[in-house]
Amino acid sequence: MSTLPELRMTGARPFPPRVSAFTRPFWDALETGTMRSTRCEDCSLLGFPPRNLCRACWSRRLAWTDLAAGGVLYSFTRVHVAPAAFRADAPYAIGLLDLDDGVRLMCRMVGAVEPADIGARAQLLVLRYDDGALFGARMTHSSPTT
Ligand SMILES: [Zn+2]
């Protein structure tokens, strides 16, 4: 899996993740530029976020695997009235992405995103804050600095 493009963000993460023993492999991989999740070793279901119990067959045999680096924008919304932690960033867009490996996930969209972008290519990004990484995405036609 190739390393995701990285975007330098200002300051600390506004709502840092609570990292547990189970989610640490996800956050460690994100620090090195890879999005990971869990695939069920019994029914092969791949989903996001990572789980320790398969939501399809209830198996506990799940293994970490790299996710696709991009996909298409399924939908998005623009947040104008944000929770306190994100108020300084408003307005901002939250997108639903269908990754090339079939995973649908929700994440912050960086850069311009418009209704005409629905169905267009987007790529995952590592958002590099002073205190660690978060993930996001941008439209592939979008400039990395906007
Ligand atoms: Zn399963």
Write up what this structure looks like.
This protein is mainly β and 146 residues long. The protein has 1 helix and 9 strands; from the N terminus they run E-H-E-E-E-E-E-E-E-E. It folds into 2 domains: 19-67, no CATH class; 69-146, Beta Barrel (OB fold (Dihydrolipoamide Acetyltransferase, E2P)). The chain is globular and about 40 Å long.
Name a few traits of the molecule.
146 residues, OB fold (Dihydrolipoamide Acetyltransferase, E2P), three-stranded antiparallel β-sheet, 9 strands, 1 helix, binds zinc ion, mainly beta
The ordered string of helix (H) and strand (E) elements is EHEEEEEEEE
| Tally of structural domains | 2
What overall geometry do the principal axes of the alpha carbons give? globular
Total helices: the number is: 1
Provide the spatial order of strands within the biggest beta sheet: 5-6-7-9-8
Terminus-to-terminus distance:
26 Å
Instruction: Report the biggest beta sheet as strand number plus sense, adding barrel if it closes.
Output: 5 strands, mixed, barrel
C-alpha Rg (nearest Å): 15 Å
**Any guess at the CATH architecture of the largest domain?**
Beta Barrel
Percentage of β-strand residues: 35-45%
What small molecules accompany the polymer chains? zinc ion
**CATH C-level label of the largest domain:** Mainly Beta
Q: What is the fold-level CATH name, i.e. the topology of the largest domain?
A: OB fold (Dihydrolipoamide Acetyltransferase, E2P)
Summarize the structure.
The protein has one helix and nine strands. The protein has one helix spanning 24-31; strands at 6-8, 36-40, 46-47, 62-66, 70-79, 92-99, 104-109, 121-129, 132-139.
